[in-house]
Amino acid sequence: MGGTEDRSTRGTRVVHAALPEPLRDAVDEFARHLASVRNHSAHTVRAYVADLVSLLDHAHRMGCAEVAELSLDTVRSWLAKQRTMGAARASLARRAAAARTFSAWAHRGGLLPTDVAATLASPRPQRTLPTVLRTDQAALLVEAPTRHSHVRPAPDDHPATDGHLTAATVDGAGAEDVVAEAVRLRDRVLLELLYGTGVRVSEACGIDVADVDHGRRVVRVRGKGGRERVVPYGSPAQRALDEWLRRGRPVLVVPGSRDALLLGVRGGRLNPTTARQIVGAYAQATGLPRIGPHALRHSAATHLLEGGADLRAVQELLGHSSLASTQVYTHVSVDRLRAAYRQAHPRA
């Protein structure tokens, strides 16, 4: 197996250097499979590889020198050890999923005589209800860049190449004022898109200018696993987009910006980490709990359902592969209904 190291396995040799070579090779090949065939994100690949290294290290300590010697009992004892060490139910469920994925892959590739983890049960993770803003709170947050001009932009850790501000002295204004106004327009677009479309923060940052269809008011986004979908947005987002593209983006754009819709202060594509800091800063300035972009996604989904949207339509809008992921929002809506009932009904 072996082969040259690529993007999907870079750095894994360090974390699994203590394993026998056959097990190390299996880890590297599995990482390549996740990245190249399953098209998982780098974050998902790292998480699965870390779980697999932990499993194979446990198996090696139990005398396993090759993948073919892995057994269901070994996998179960590994999970039991994780539980005694205090792993949360959600973490155990993810590690069991990683073990099942590896076992199925190894069996298909002839490394395992049988799919030993096919029948492996895993604890159902406790579902915590997502943070959901009220509609008035969501409106306050989305409009915050207009009201709170004192909020400073987060540091930009991904500058574009050949960076310079081409419009820093427009109409005689100071460069700092021009950039601050451009950033404010950028922030408004970011917040409008996160709440108006329900997209993930990584999806919002990945949007290119050509992905926006202004005539139909829809935007193409690339979600998990490279899956594309088209989501609609409303007239407030359209106005924010028009202002950003007319007066904001030209200020920050540099040759290295390429086609990115949302730009950082140094012209590179806006980074999700920076976007999270932006949402948190405006939430704090508005007097809301310090929340992240996912709270706007949760709020959009909940408000759609409360407004009468079909669950399947919300599933498609959010890009959930399973309806079960979307159904959590029905529980949120019911909880809000119960709270309103207890507060308002005389016989509650």
TrEMBL record:
Assigned protein family: Belongs to the 'phage' integrase family. XerC subfamily.
Subunit structure: Forms a cyclic heterotetrameric complex composed of two molecules of XerC and two molecules of XerD.
Name of this chain's protein: Tyrosine recombinase XerC
Entry annotation: catalytic residues: R200, K224, H294, R297, H320, Y329 (o-(3'-phospho-dna)-tyrosine intermediate)
Top-level taxonomy: Bacteria, Bacillati, Actinomycetota, Actinomycetes, Micromonosporales
PANTHER family found in the cross-reference section: PHAGE INTEGRASE-RELATED, TYROSINE RECOMBINASE XERC
General function of this protein: Site-specific tyrosine recombinase, which acts by catalyzing the cutting and rejoining of the recombining DNA molecules. The XerC-XerD complex is essential to convert dimers of the bacterial chromosome into monomers to permit their segregation at cell division. It also contributes to the segregational stability of plasmids.
Signal peptide (residue range): none
Top-rank taxon, per record: Bacteria
Stretches assigned to the Tyr recombinase domain: 128-342
Keywords: Cell cycle, Cell division, Chromosome partition, Cytoplasm, DNA integration, DNA recombination, DNA-binding
Native species: Micromonospora gifhornensis
Keyword Electron transport: no
Domain Core-binding (CB) per the UniProt entry, residue ranges: 21-107
Entries under InterPro entries matching the protein: CB, DNA_brk_join_enz, Integrase-like_cat_sf, Integrase_catalytic, Integrase_recombinase_N, Integrase_SAM-like_N, Tyrosine_recombinase_XerC/XerD, Tyrosine_recombinase_XerCD
Keyword Protein biosynthesis: no
Cell compartments where the protein resides: Cytoplasm
